[in-house]
């Protein structure tokens, strides 16, 4: 059977300067620049196979094992845009007449509220670009699937430039430094138990643009300075500056969410207990050793350097214990336990209280990693040669 297939994987990214607010809803052009770390694909990634064949009656997509409709404006925008670019290459003439089947899955729970759409759209666009041999920047296409997706194409630290062109042609993501630049950088994701239905990023930021005065102030007076300063801190491997800006920007983003009318509340009591813990820890240590950041949900993402990982984990396990006062379950890079009794004592003296057991679901221990990439083995394809999920 005639067909062409490509399989790729793409990472999750966690912003340290947040994207929140669009100046163009349809093209997904942001109000401000944003900057994120790309997480290692060893622990978390999206995997996508795209297949084209003259036998396919229509475009089809399966997401995490379930068939979904292809009649989705963002999905179609990405496909149309890649195909428009592919038309410039005569070799694609036949391929472009065929329908596509897409199969995508995450190796981490979508329900955990971790940036799954960013990894998913980055992977979809990257795989299509490989299928049609489209060269050059495709971040401006991934952006049209989900804004933050454009930052998952590259590894290390990545900046999404808002741009000024009305057509979005200069709204693209570029790498600031590769993951090898700051190899000690580590990430702990504290997945918080939560059942509350939350306002999606898309509608939360739309409402913020319409109603928040603080957002207007942030875009003009805070983000430009912060972006320049954090980029410099990253290049100089200046962790205290990096950490302070990261925490301030997360706090301001959540303040904007609260300044939205009606307000959007993403952090919960457990999130705030984590914030208290990190500030007490940083105070005891005399300078920031750990930075927290929260996206549109209660989970904490901690950026820290490798020497601080074991003690931080011991503190989390003490102040936010697992069920029945046991340690929290941990996935990913193993951490050798240490005795943190002295620091625990110092934090208790500051009035920090131990929380009830079982407030966290689990912890993911990871690092920074590379951007989206193609897998060369046919065995990796998620679709069988007939075009159906394996
Ligand atoms: C809080 O990229 O999910 O994670 O462009 O509407 O799809 P859409 O929004 P999305 O928003 C992400 C918001 C954030 C901050 C960030 O990643 O910069």
UniProtKB/TrEMBL annotation:
Q: Which domain of life is it from?
A: Eukaryota
Q: Which Pfam families match?
A: MDD_C (PF18376), MVD-like_N (PF22700)
**Organism for this UniProt entry:** Megalurothrips usitatus (bean blossom thrips)
Keywords noted in UniProt: ATP-binding, Cholesterol biosynthesis, Cholesterol metabolism, Lipid biosynthesis, Lipid metabolism, Lyase, Nucleotide-binding, Steroid biosynthesis, Steroid metabolism, Sterol biosynthesis, Sterol metabolism
**Annotated catalysed reactions:** (R)-5-diphosphomevalonate + ATP = isopentenyl diphosphate + ADP + phosphate + CO2
Coiled-coil stretches? none
**A GO MF term:** ATP binding
PANTHER family from the UniProt entry:
DIPHOSPHOMEVALONATE DECARBOXYLASE (PTHR10977:SF3)
The UniProt entry, under InterPro entries, shows:
GHMP_kinase_C_sf, Mev_decarb, Mev_diP_decarb, MVD-like_N, Mvd1_C, Ribosomal_Su5_D2-typ_SF, Ribsml_uS5_D2-typ_fold_subgr
According to the entry, what is the taxonomic lineage of the organism?
Eukaryota, Metazoa, Ecdysozoa, Arthropoda, Hexapoda
Its function, per the record, reads: Catalyzes the ATP dependent decarboxylation of (R)-5-diphosphomevalonate to form isopentenyl diphosphate (IPP). Functions in the mevalonate (MVA) pathway leading to isopentenyl diphosphate (IPP), a key precursor for the biosynthesis of isoprenoids and sterol synthesis.
| Record protein name field | Diphosphomevalonate decarboxylase
Main EC class the enzyme belongs to:
lyase
Task: Give the EC number(s) listed in the UniProt record.
Answer: 4.1.1.33
Positions of the Mvd1 C-terminal domain: 187-373
In the record, the note on similarity to other proteins reads: Belongs to the diphosphomevalonate decarboxylase family.
- Which BP terms does GO give this entry? cholesterol biosynthetic process; isopentenyl diphosphate biosynthetic process, mevalonate pathway
GO CC term (a single one) = cytosol
Please state the pathway this protein functions in, per its UniProt record: Steroid biosynthesis; cholesterol biosynthesis
Q: Which residues form the Diphosphomevalonate decarboxylase-like N-terminal domain?
A: 10-173
């Amino acid at each position: 059977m005639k067909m062409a297939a490509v399989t790729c994987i793409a990472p999750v990214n966690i912003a340290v300067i947040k994207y929140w607010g669009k100046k163009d809803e349809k093209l997904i052009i942001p109000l401000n620049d944003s900057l994120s770390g790309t997480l290692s694909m060893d622990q978390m990634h999206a995997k996508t196979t795209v297949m084209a064949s003259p036998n396919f009656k229509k475009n089809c997509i399966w997401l995490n094992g379930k068939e979904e409709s292809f009649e989705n404006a963002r999905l179609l925008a990405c496909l149309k845009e890649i195909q428009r670019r592919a038309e410039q290459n005569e070799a694609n003439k036949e391929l472009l007449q065929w329908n596509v089947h897409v199969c995508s899955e995450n190796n981490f729970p979508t329900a955990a509220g971790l940036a799954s759409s960013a990894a998913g759209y980055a992977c979809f666009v990257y795989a299509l670009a490989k299928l049609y041999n489209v060269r050059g920047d495709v971040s401006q296409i991934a952006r049209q699937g989900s804004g933050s997706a454009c930052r998952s194409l590259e590894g290390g630290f990545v900046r999404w430039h808002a741009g000024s062109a009305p057509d979005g042609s200069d709204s693209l993501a570029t790498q600031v430094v590769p993951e090898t630049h700051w190899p000690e950088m580590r990430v702990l994701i504290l997945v918080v138990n939560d059942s509350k239905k939350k306002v999606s990023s898309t509608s939360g930021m739309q409402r913020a643009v319409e109603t928040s005065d603080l957002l207007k102030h942030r875009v003009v007076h805070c983000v430009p300075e912060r972006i320049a300063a954090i980029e410099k801190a990253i290049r100089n491997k200046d962790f205290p500056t990096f950490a302070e800006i990261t925490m301030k920007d997360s706090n301001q983003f959540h303040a904007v969410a609260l300044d939205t009318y009606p307000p959007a509340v993403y952090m919960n009591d457990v999130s705030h207990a984590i914030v208290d813990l990190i500030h007490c820890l940083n105070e005891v240590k005399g300078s920031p050793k750990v930075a927290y950041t929260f996206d549109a949900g209660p989970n904490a993402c901690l950026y820290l350097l490798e020497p601080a990982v074991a003690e931080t984990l011991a503190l989390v396990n003490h102040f936010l214990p697992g069920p029945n006062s046991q340690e929290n379950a941990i996935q990913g890079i193993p951490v050798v336990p240490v005795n943190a009794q002295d620091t625990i004592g110092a934090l208790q003296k500051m009035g920090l209280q131990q929380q009830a057991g079982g407030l966290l679901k689990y912890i993911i221990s990871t690092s920074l990693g590379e951007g989206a990439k193609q897998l060369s083995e046919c065995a990796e394809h998620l679709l069988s040669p007939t075009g159906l999920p394996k």
